[in-house]
Design brief:
The strands form 4 sheets. This protein has a 12-stranded antiparallel β-sheet, with no helix packed on it. Strands 20-19-18-17-16-15-26-25-24-23-22-21 form a 12-stranded antiparallel β-sheet, with no helix packed on it. It has one helix spanning about 1-20; strands at about 35, 45-55, 60-70, 75-85, 95-100, 105-110, 115-125, 125, 130-135, 140-150, 155-170, 170-180, 185-195, 195-210, 225-235, 245-255, 260-270, 275-280, 285-290, 295-300, 310, 315-330, 330-345, 350-360, 365-375, 380-390, 410-415, 420-430, 435-440, 445-455, 460, 470-475, 485, 490-505, 505-520, 525-535, 535-545, 550-560. It contains 1 helix and 38 strands.
């Protein structure tokens, strides 16, 4: 073992010496671009700015708030309604604008002279040297000048992209400077507009930024054996008193169903109408079928007020999260339950359901009301109200002491190549271990190695010829919803699921599905989902690398854990 450590130290020093001789280092690299996904556009998001007007020589505080969504123009564009108010309570909003997000463009609309007019555009990704024309005026140039740290009102923001906009038409001239930061948005603007005389000369400086809370996948029960008991009211039946049926809904089991997808069987123990609903959890999307056809919907996590799910080809369910409400049920009072309103149906048989759903953090669906219309059966008008909730036994987190990384370990996998449709056998052996271990991988035709180092509560994976930059890491304890980034490569990992899993080597629980996205600069080069379980390690893995033509599934068939 000592010889191995000496070898690794020597290799590391040689690599480091080579890097230094080339005049290179390995600092954390600042983002080189700002994508549209990094621009906050959730209802309830608020920016507070200091407004300095150089014409009136006044200073005010204003709030910019995403207030709602609506549709505008002949194309029915779905836009966000943005309200700007002074800190002083004036009568009505000081200003209203409309933000439209397309695939790569943020368009700022204003309503003037009975029509919606585009006032400015930002083209994504925002990156050093990017240039575009907003096409608002005949001459309307935008250029990203630089990306650097900037200090505003005593607070320093890293990775601020500085955009210079110059525009003109006839005697109207614009010289504007904007600074945007990923995941915050506009942190500063300096605008100068001239129409014969100066009509606008002001600066906005960010004071504070607030995003509303969201409901994450980890806040919604999806674990096996979780169960809910509901009071079910039939609104089509006249009844005196509190007349209802009782239905218990239980997650019976779950099965891995392909890349990043789990099929769960939900049993509805409804009097005289028992059924099993095959629901699907695919990364951050939970598809649910309810008791009565055609009530079904896809919950996209994290849930946020204002979020809209609209049908695309092959789908016929849509909803909008309208807000949060306090719901009083037999199980208690739920504050800030997310309120969804939507519809679902089948385009072929003409069936339709309209529904209202309330979802509470940690409890799931606490109330659902729906009305269904079908051609083959009677209509339903039902209200389900939670009576009790029985969570599944909490899953203990996967801690670093249960990560197998010691001498004489071995795993045997069956590897299926989806391209060639051929099977192979892969043997993985741990040759040496303590805080550093060499893992050897061998098939009939190939042999390669990885070095695994335990540093505190992090397991880092290295290629033997590069002991400075880990290509992957696991940060413990591993729990559902955790995510992290391995520096300096920028490869990111997310814990997608925690569920039982049955494979040729046996049935294991809990199994944590960790998706790792490998990147080269901003491009995704490889995706990997590794299912790991305490004391055993990796039991199943999916690897997709389109550049190298890799599309493989690994399944554990045997292992030795002395």
């Amino acid at each position: 073992m000592k010889n191995l450590i000496k070898l690794l130290i020597t290799v590391s020093l040689l690599i480091l010496s080579g890097l230094l001789s080339c005049g290179k280092d390995n600092p954390l690299v600042a983002p080189t671009e700002f994508t549209i996904d990094n621009f906050p556009h959730e209802i309830g998001t608020v920016w507070q700015y200091q407004k300095d007007d150089r014409i009136s020589m006044t200073t005010d505080t204003i709030y910019v708030r995403i207030d709602d969504t609506t549709r505008i123009t002949d194309d029915s564009l779905l836009v966000y309604v943005v309200i700007t108010d002074f800190v002083t309570a004036l009568a009505g909003p000081y200003d209203t604008s409309y933000w439209y997000f397309s695939d790569d463009t943020l368009s700022y609309y204003k309503y003037e002279t009975d029509t919606f007019i585009v006032k400015r555009k930002v083209i994504f990704p925002i990156e050093d040297g990017a240039v575009w024309n907003s096409e608002v005026f005949p001459f309307d140039s935008n250029e990203v000048i630089e990306n650097r740290a900037i200090t505003i009102l005593g607070k320093t923001y890293q990775n601020a992209f500085h955009i210079l906009r110059t525009a003109s038409v006839f005697n109207e001239y614009y010289t504007d400077n904007f600074w945007y930061v990923p995941n915050i948005g506009l942190i500063k603007s300096d605008e100068n507009h001239i129409l014969w005389t100066t009509t606008k000369d002001e600066t906005l400086s960010l004071i504070s930024f607030h995003q509303p809370d969201s409901l994450k996948l980890s806040d919604f029960p999806v674990q096996v054996k979780a169960s809910w008991t509901y009071k079910v009211y039939n609104n089509l039946i006249d009844c005196f008193g509190d007349c209802y049926d009782t239905c218990t809904v239980t997650i019976m089991d779950s099965v891995y169903n392909g890349l990043g997808s789990i099929k769960e069987n939900w049993m509805f123990d409804y009097p005289g109408q028992e059924r099993i609903a095959n629901n699907t959890l695919n990364q951050n999307i939970l598809f649910l079928q309810w008791q009565h056809y055609p009530v079904f919907f896809s919950l996209i996590f994290p849930l946020k007020v204002g979020q809209i799910f609209e049908p695309s080809p092959g789908k016929s369910s849509s909803y909008k999260i309208l807000g949060r409400q306090t719901i009083l049920t037999s199980a208690g009072t739920f504050k800030d339950a997310y309120y969804l309103k939507g519809s679902s149906g089948d385009w072929y048989d003409g069936s339709l359901a309209v529904f209202d759903i309330w979802i509470a953090k940690g409890f799931g669906i606490v109330k659902i009301s729906y009305h269904t219309t079908t051609t083959n059966s009677s209509d339903n008008d039902m209200t389900w109200e939670i009576k009790s909730y029985n969570p599944s036994k909490p899953i203990e987190p996967f801690t670093i002491d249960k990560f197998p990384n010691y001498d004489n370990l071995s795993w045997t996998y069956q590897v299926f190549d989806n391209n060639s449709q051929l099977y192979d056998t892969l043997l993985v052996q741990v040759a040496e271990s303590s805080t550093v271990a060499v893992w050897s991988y061998s098939t009939q035709d190939t042999l390669w190695q990885e070095v695994v180092s335990i540093e505190g509560t992090v397991a880092k994976f290295f290629h033997p010829n590069n002991m400075i930059e880990p290509f992957k890491s696991y940060q413990f304890p591993i729990e559902l919803g955790n995510n992290w980034t391995t520096y300096p490569t920028g490869n990111s990992s997310t814990v997608l699921f925690a569920t039982p899993l049955t494979i040729p080597a046996g049935r294991f629980f809990p199994c944590y599905a960790i998706e790792t996205v490998y990147r080269n600069d901003s491009s995704v080069t490889q995706r990997e989902i590794d299912w790991i379980t305490p004391s055993v390690g990796s039991i199943q893995k999916t690897i997709i690398n389109e550049n190298l033509g890799i599309d493989e599934n690994w399944r554990l068939i045997d292992y030795s854990n002395p």
